[in-house]
From TrEMBL:
The keyword Repeat does not apply. NCBIfam families: PRK12497.1-3, YraN family protein. InterPro entries: Restrct_endonuc-II-like, tRNA_endonuc-like_dom_sf, UPF0102_YraN-like. It holds the Pfam family UPF0102. It comes from Halopseudomonas yangmingensis. Keywords: Endonuclease, Hydrolase, Nuclease. One of its GO terms (molecular function) is endonuclease activity. This is UPF0102 protein SAMN05216217_10669. It comes from the Bacteria. Belongs to the UPF0102 family. The keyword Hydrolase applies.
Length: 121
């Protein structure tokens, strides 16, 4: 399986996990010149920007460790752009979550949802 296909599969699995927890999908793979948002979801009144990370193994670090300062900044900047282009959501509370997985990407047990993984500061 190509890395692009693995990424798409892990994003679908993450989206399914979050929808089962009651979140509603607003956007998938939102792109702008500042970065990309894997998933934008709604958790009651909160807009949730989700970074999905998959690693075949933890040999070179975990999936959650791969969300470094630079990646967080790109997600935050893309989230700001998203809110500018969706002004009806601009006054809603927001949070940044990470869904991290390693191993078999088809096994939902391999996915870990980290709420409030980082902030916009």
């Amino acid at each position: 399986m190509t890395s692009h296909a693995l990424g798409q599969l892990s994003e679908r699995q993450a989206c399914s996990l979050l929808q089962q927890a009651g979140l509603r999908l607003l956007a998938r793979n939102y792109r702008c010149r500042l970065g990309e948002l894997d998933l934008v979801m709604r958790d009651t009144d909160t807009v949730v920007f989700v970074e999905v990370r998959y690693r075949r193994s933890n040999r070179w670090g975990s999936a959650e460790e791969s969300v470094d300062w630079r990646k967080r900044q790109r997600v935050v900047n893309a989230a700001r752009h998203y809110l500018l282009t969706h002004p009806h959501l601009a006054d809603q509370p927001c949070r940044f979550d990470v869904v991290a997985a390693a191993g078999n990407p088809e096994d939902p047990q391999n996915y870990r949802w980290i709420r409030d993984a980082f902030t916009s500061q």
